[in-house]
Amino acid sequence: MVNVTVDEIQRDPSKYLRQVEAGETFVILQADKPIPSVSFANAELRPIASTKQLRPFGLCAGEFTVPDDFDAPLPEDILSAFEGK
Q1: Percent of the chain beyond pLDDT 70?
Q2: How is residue 40 annotated by DSSP?
Q3: Residues whose CB falls within 8 Å of the CB of residue 28, separated by 6 or more in sequence, listed in order
Q4: Which of 43, 51, 57, 74 could form a disulfide with 28 if both were Cys (CB 3.0 to 4.6 A apart)?
Q5: What is the pLDDT of residues 55-69, one digit of tens each?
Q6: What pLDDT, on the 0 to 100 scale, is given for residue 37?
Q7: Is the distance from CB of 45 to CB of 16 less than 8 angstroms?
């Protein structure tokens, strides 16, 4: 973890965001002290750990068939309902 002041972040936010994207974590300082957060931990600028796994390609292959008219214009009554008529 690297300490960084609010002023440094404001001068060049893109620089710090690029470093966060690369995995770096920053403790944010104000008046040379870490900024406390509501949870009594220090304020940090860090990447969010992703717990989501990507779904495999073709997961639902063969589960359904796209009808031939899937891109046909909507019937007038449904179109009117969407338009609030």
Answers
A1: 93
A2: S
A3: 4, 5, 6, 9, 34, 35, 42, 43, 44, 45
A4: 43
A5: 888 888 889 888 999
A6: 59
A7: yes
**How far is it, in rounded angstroms, from Cα 30 to Cα 74?**
58
Cα separations (Å) of 62 from 31, 57, 58, 59?
A: 61, 13, 9, 9
Specify whether the backbone of 32 is left (phi greater than 0), alpha (psi in -120 to 50) or beta: left
Average the pLDDT over 65-85 and give the result.
91
Q: Look up tokens 């220090």; give the residue.
A: 42
Token digits of residue 38: 């509501």
The β-bridge partners of 42 are 36
E-only strand ranges, 1-85? 2-5, 26-30, 33-34, 44-45
Structure tokens, 10: 């404001």
